[in-house]
Amino acid sequence: MVCALGAAVCFGTATVLQAVATRTADAGEGGGDAALLLRALRQWRYLAGLALDGAGFVLQVAALRSIPIYAVGAALASSLAVTAVVAARLLKVRLSRAEWGAVIVVCAGLGMLALASGTEGERTGPTALKYAMLATAAGVLALGALGGRLPERGRPLALGLGAGFGFGVVEVAVRLIDDVSPGALLTNPATYALLLGGGAAFLLLTSALQRGSVTTATAGMVIGETIGPAAVGVVWLGDRTREGLEWLALLGFAVAVVGALALARFGEIPAEVPSDDDTLVSPSPSPPPLSPPSSPTPPSSP
Predict the structure, then answer these.
(1) Domain boundary among 196, 218, 238
(2) Measured between alpha carbons, how far is 141 from 250 in angstroms, rounded to an integer?
(3) How much is the pTM?
(4) Taking the mean position of all CA atoms in its chain, how far away is CA 116?
(5) Do 116 and 1 belong together in one domain?
């Protein structure tokens, strides 16, 4: 569980950095998602976010090898709480009382999950499940290619759900890879599902943050990356709770996910970066500019 929470801290902090960088890259310029990504890669904040994403992924894999998928999924959804706290500490973004309450709710849900979670299931899953994950990843990739053509009204939810499904594929695929020797990896459909699902989810999330309601897109992502993978873990991979604590695990999962949904607006920091790339300015004309500290230090985990 410590690894899962560490991954949430990495992902949540990376969101702050990447959201600001993608807005800078998109300011005043056209182009598709690939062009946006290339411009974002020139921003130091985006590169720092990528480094944190890499560290978070390593911790995520370690967690998936130790505890059930439902616990890892809920912990990763809690990265929104981390993002909210980082934004409040570093960017001086004001959280309402309800949002601080949601942060506490997320922490309470994760605490319940930590008490109730058992060890990971011992089942390897049927071979058909590996191909099902690969097909799902291909579907997410196709959605990413068509994302810009989706109806504007339903685009944020569709892209957010797609990104969530892609991240969910990664969670399940990690469990379906039981042999990491080069030969076994190359012949395992789950390997390709992991690569396709992760890449497609990353593309969809980048697009969703730029092309519609951040709250809607992030809520879709949270739902997509938690409920489905948790069900797969319980039904096909044998994930269980500690004896007699099924109710606590279910309650903790629900509480953590609901708390994360309440913080969905923090899927992207509501700020734009001007050309000097030093001062963060709120898109609303009334609030004063937001300036990050000159030497930011990582916040403590919530």
Answers:
(1) 238
(2) 31
(3) 0.79
(4) 23
(5) yes
